[in-house]
Specification:
The chain is an alpha/beta fold. It has 20 helices and 23 strands. Helix 8 links the parallel strand 10 and strand 11. The structure holds threonylcarbamoyladenylate and magnesium ion (MG).
């Protein structure tokens, strides 16, 4: 399919776009929030094409876009008086209302819900297209599912060239984040998604407003949520995003410790100077929230590159429009937020078998610290975590029988196929990390995360310090033979299958070499634990 670009400045564009839509086609439309991927919202076949083009899960309903507030009654019933007041105050504009749907709205638009999300966007070209087409447009944000939203026609072209009929180029979007969604279908109004209309503005009209907990917390995949879209990973570039809170200097110190070449920093314009060594990209001014909402998605798209590894992101504080930025960034980061001052002091400990990690771990637990043994976590998850097992089973059919994993069978598949092993690791690393986060104590504590795969499992970014425990090979072999009762040859092959000490040392902030007596090693560990920061940080 040839995707045509229609200029917003051309007066024939609304007519052409409306014609394509009336023929059941897909047209990307500009709005004040983000670009939408539009089709005839009353035509199930046309709507189905949106789901295919976006790769969108079928249970995630679409917003119906109308050209005038009074069209609300054509598609919604039992409309409370408050909805009229909100429309009067904010339409056309970045507000979506969830209301009981009339039967004329097809089930595929509402994903089978009895309600429909409706909004009148503040963009003249798009309102003309809707009016000319004579039908409401179903339109999700035009990005591919899971990716950062599109705020320019070029973004849309990047995601959908050859997959949709046309793109209407209306220039960059003014607001830059998707509309605020408020649910008016059921008792007290509920904020489902923060956006350009703030909770404060809504409360002025509504009085009471509940903020749904999915706005600021991670939602389990199978949870029942009010806006189905909230449970999916969203807005995420193809690299890891970690939000670094705290004052500028504490954040800089944290980033300095964790930054490796290729990583990036996403920050405010005012911070560009201080982050110069860390390849910074600014998305707006912290003193002007409108610049942050307008710039966020373009920046996240620029960072959409798996070779970056980690993006350390600065996030605005406070209420109002800052909530919309926080919500998008938190979702992009999978809710991984670090406060370099107030959090736990986490030491990530890694190194090969037989190096003597347990000496250090034992000392940390004697000091009152919490030790999380990732190997044990992993084996427990293999036995108990249904979600992980079902992810393994759906990737490697036949390896889980009656809820029990056949490890030999799985081993046979993954040890001869590097890609399969990588996919298995992606599943297990994610589950282990989630479990580690769950195991962290509630009060600030000293914590040791013991993981041979500290880096592969993306656990290192959680740590304030990473330390490699290393030891000469002959010493390790002696220990393994004694401790595990295995042959020297087998001990040697186990060691050779792991990373080398030099690699562990290169990856970590510190190295503790266990190359002398037990007593000497204990002294080294103590010097490390009572050296700058760690014990004092408690
Ligand atoms: O600014 C916007 O709202 C943009 C532009 C194109 O209008 N559209 C947009 O659509 O962001 P989308 O599909 O990316 O996000 C719509 C959100 C999803 O989280 C969806 O689950 C939720 O609205 N939603 C749709 N219908 C709903 C309903 N009946 N009840 C609750 N949530 C609903
Ligand atoms: Mg979206």
């Amino acid at each position: 399919m040839n995707t045509i670009m229609l200029s917003g400045a051309d007066i024939s564009t609304p007519c052409k776009a409306a014609a394509i839509i009336n023929q059941g086609g897909l047209v990307a439309i500009p709005t004040e929030t983000v670009y939408g991927l539009a089709a005839n919202g009353l035509d199930p076949e046309a709507v189905a094409k949106i789901f295919i083009a976006k790769g969108r899960p079928q249970d995630n309903p679409l917003i119906l876009h109308v050209s005038e507030a009074n069209e609300m009654e054509r598609f919604c019933h039992s409309i409370p008086e408050s909805a009229y007041r909100l429309a009067e105050a904010f339409w056309p504009g970045p507000l979506t209302m969830v209301l009981p749907a009339r039967d004329c709205v097809p089930k595929c638009t509402t994903a089978g819900l009895s309600t429909v999300a409706i909004r009148c966007p503040d963009n003249d070209i798009t309102r003309k297209i809707i009016a000319l087409a004579g039908i409401p447009l179903a339109a999700p944000s035009a990005n591919l599912s899971g990716k950062p939203s599109t705020t320019t026609a070029q973004h849309v072209l990047h995601d959908h060239d050859g997959r949709i009929d046309a793109i209407v180029d209306g220039g960059p979007c003014r607001v830059g984040v998707e509309s605020t969604i408020v649910d008016l279908s059921d008792g007290t109004p509920r904020l489902l998604r923060p956006g350009g209309i703030t909770p404060e503005q809504l409360r002025e009209i509504l009085g009471e407003l509940i903020v749904d907990k999915a706005v600021s917390a991670s939602v389990e995949k199978d949870a029942v949520v009010k806006a189905p879209g909230m449970k999916y990973r969203h807005y995420a570039p193809d690299c890891r995003v970690v939000i670094v809170d705290g004052d500028l200097l504490a954040a800089k110190a944290y980033i300095e410790r964790h930054f490796v070449p290729g990583n990036r920093v996403l920050c405010f314009e005012e911070e560009l100077d201080i982050f110069t060594p860390f390849s910074p990209l600014a998305y707006g001014k912290s003193s002007d929230m409108d610049t942050l909402t307008a710039g966020l998605f373009a920046a996240l798209r620029e960072l959409d590159d798996p070779s970056i590894g980690t993006v350390f992101a600065r996030c605005p504080k406070g209420n109002g429009k800052a909530l919309a930025v926080q919500n998008r960034l938190e979702k992009a980061a999978g809710f991984q937020r670090i406060n370099p001052r107030k959090e736990h002091f986490i030491i990530g400990i890694t190194g090969g078998t037989g190096c003597g990690k347990s000496t250090l771990l034992h000392m940390i637990s004697q000091l009152g610290g919490t030790v999380i043994d990732c190997d044990r976590v992993y084996h427990r998850l293999l036995e108990t975590d249904e979600q992980m097992l079902s992810a393994i089973e759906s990737r490697f059919p036949g390896v889980v029988i009656n809820g029990i994993l056949d490890r030999k069978k799985l081993g046979k598949v993954v040890f001869s196929d590097e890609n399969a092993l990588r996919e298995l690791n992606a599943i297990t690393h994610k589950a282990v990390k989630e479990e580690v986060l769950r195991l962290l104590p509630d009060t600030p504590s000293l914590i040791a995360i013991d993981a041979i795969g500290l880096f592969e499992g993306n656990l290192a970014p959680l740590c304030n310090r990473t330390v490699a425990v290393t030891a000469p090979e002959e010493m390790r072999i002696r220990r393994l033979v004694q401790r595990d009762g295995i042959s020297e040859e087998y001990a040697r092959s186990r060691i050779r299958a792991q990373r080398t000490d030099a690699e562990f040392a290169r990856l970590c902030d510190f190295t503790l070499e266990n190359n002398d007596t037990e007593e000497a090693f204990r002294k080294k560990c103590l010097a490390f634990l009572f050296g700058p920061d760690i014990i004092k940080a408690e």
